[in-house]
Design a protein that fits this description.
The protein is α/β, with parallel strands linked by helices and 116 residues long. The protein contains 4 helices and 4 strands; from the N terminus they run E-H-E-H-E-H-E-H. The protein has a 4-stranded parallel β-sheet with strand order 2-1-3-4, with helices on one face. Strand 3 (54-59), helix 3 and strand 4 form a beta-alpha-beta unit. Helix 3 (69-81) packs parallel to helix 4 (99-115). It is globular.
């Protein structure tokens, strides 16, 4: 896994192990812009998030790894509570009916912590 430090600010992350955000079909079906930084794992996403350069994130849950999108949302919630990462815009493109509400709840909590 290669991760590069991005020198720019305000990148958009696309967390998904299969769906390429630059694919026109994915853009149409899942609302990607095609310009997102595509990360396939939670650890990869955390590298970018920890740098404080993420303006937005779109979540899939089922990543084919032990850590899923909901685990990243919980991590973001904790980091927001501790004021360790900046506010970001978020959305969920996962079709997982159990995990999607959990991601949304964690991110709504993060929003509350960012407001404090």
């Amino acid at each position: 896994m290669k991760i590069y430090r991005i020198s720019m600010q305000n990148i958009d992350l696309w967390l998904d192990d299969n769906r390429d955000p630059s694919d026109p079909k994915i853009q149409k079906l899942f609302g990607s812009k095609g310009t997102e930084v595509w990360v396939k794992t939670v650890p990869e996403a955390k590298v970018y998030l920890s740098q404080g350069i993420v303006a937005s994130i779109s979540f899939d849950n089922d990543l084919g790894t032990p850590e899923e999108g909901r685990h990243l949302a919980d991590w973001i919630e904790e980091k927001a509570y501790n004021k360790e990462i900046p506010r970001m815009v978020w959305r969920v493109h996962s079709a997982n009916v159990d995990a999607s509400p959990r991601i949304q709840a964690a991110m709504r909590n993060a929003e509350r912590f960012w407001e404090d």
